[in-house]
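Troubleshooting log. The previous structure file for this entry was overwritten by mistake, so regenerating from the original sequence record. Sequence copied from the archived sheet and checked twice against the printout by T.R.
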Amino acid sequence: MKLDHIGVAVADLEKSIQAYQALGLDVAHREHVAKDRVEVAFVPFAGGRFELLHPDQEDSPVGRFLAKRGEGIHHVALTVDDIAGEVERLHAAGVRMIDQEPRRGAEGTLVAFIHPSSMGGVLVELVQRPKGEAHHG
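Regenerated output below.
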């Protein structure tokens, strides 16, 4: 497994993008993920990427996160080669999953989230990239 990205919940996507640009980092990809009701902007850096997450509705998962916790790290994502196999292995090991099976994520990926209660309070996302696509980190 490799670091794919660090998800950061933000209240103002444009203002956050400007802050990362001030660091010398630019947005490489931007997308609306309708199923998750979120606008995302990926900002690469050596060794990984930030995924800036802005909800399009207050009652979306990221919207509820912002209301409860404010801006900040939302999740850590790891790239895996066989997400279905990883989810099955984690189930067998008694790890609590949010996603019982992989689902579509940004950039045409397959994703599955591990519940924070099984990961020391950290929301962990597993990401499988489309075949033939290189890791961005």
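The chain is about 20% helix and 35% strand. Archived copy saved in two places this time.
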